[in-house]
Structures are given as C-alpha cells and as structure tokens.
Amino acid sequence: xxxxxxxxxxxxxxxxxxxxxxxxxxxxxxxxxxxxxxxxxxxxxxxxxxxxxxxxxxxxxxxxxxxxxxxxxxxxxxxxxxxxxxxxxxxxxxxxxxxxxxxxxxxxxxxxxxxxxxxxxxxxxxxxxxxxxxxxxxxxxxxxxxxxxxxxxxxxxxxxxxxxxxxxxxxxxxxxxxxxxxxxxxxxxxxxxxxxxxxxxxxxxxxxxxxxxxxxxxxxxxxxxx
Length: 226
Fold this sequence. Notes:
The protein contains 7 helices and 10 strands. By secondary structure, the protein is of the alpha/beta class. Belongs to the ABC transporter superfamily.
C-alpha cells in the first residue's frame, strides 16, 4: 500500500475553483470518496497519478511529488476509469492485458505467463483472442481492471467503476474491489459499495466536509442531500 498526501491542494479550471485547501493523508486499505456531481471528487483522485496537476499545493505518493515524478508514480498507482472503453487500447483481450507489461521490459515468456494468469483470475481466458470491443460492459470493466492489475501496482484508484454497469455486473465489480490485496480508493455514487470500507471521505464544493468511518461519513453525506 502507498501513503498518499494532499498538502494545501487547490485546483482551478479558468475562473472555476474545483478544489480548495485540501489536506489529506491516505494510508488505509479501502477508502471511499463520495460527493455530488461537480463536487471535485473525480478531480481529486485524478491527481493521485498525475492525470490532473494541482494549481496549488502538492500531491505525493510515498514521498514522490506526482507533478514531477508522474511516470514513477504510475508504476505504483493504477487508475480505472468510469468507461472502460477509454482505456482499452489493443484489438484483442489478450493483447490489451499484455500491452502494459511490454512497456516494463519483461521477457516474452514472463509477459505470456503473467497475462495468462491475470486473464484466468478475471474469468477472461476464454475471451483471450476475442476483439475487446465486442465484450459486454461488465467484461470490459473486468478487462480494464485486469490490464491495470497485471502490472501489480500498490494502489488502485477507481473513478465510479460501476456507474455504467447493470446491477449484476456492478455487484461483481464491487465484490472484486473488496477482495483485492492492493490499497483501493473508490469514487462512487453507489454508497453501498463503500459501506464496509475502512474510511469514507465526503467532498462538497471542492472541500472535505466529512472524513472518517463509513457510518458517520455516509450519514453526513445523506444529510447534505436532504
């Protein structure tokens, strides 16, 4: 697991301030982040692996400033997008999982072994030679997870990973996120997904308004929605 720190982090897009004075230390195994649309929660997590650079303040992962060491940080932090089509880059399922490893300087034998093991772990072995774009929505999200996890990052950040899925596939992805050995940080509107996490953070209007055990934080969030 990683130690992720936000120190006086602010973010503006033009005249619009998205985050302001965020201070956080993320060390727990399972962390949920919730908030209304436009609250800044997705911007916050995208800073963890350098998809967004803060306008002010610093974000560090295990002491590495993400803005200056994004490449090194991305070896530690894998990112799962809401829409898996945004991160499927190769024609077939097998090629998409192997693609990550080809950039790591591994031998062809090791790439083949790790790819096969990861496809088996996610129940995608029988689809290995199929075109990735022909998978179902749930299978595509499994493929996106497989392509990230094959690189063995210490931390997984998932930005609303169940939003586009039907109930059965959303439950499957949720259960999988609960069982991963990696540190998992999940942004979600599906509050049941984080009810048993170690910590839940509530973002409202670019600031942290609740942070603690799920029961307390989710109660605070539901109160905001009233």
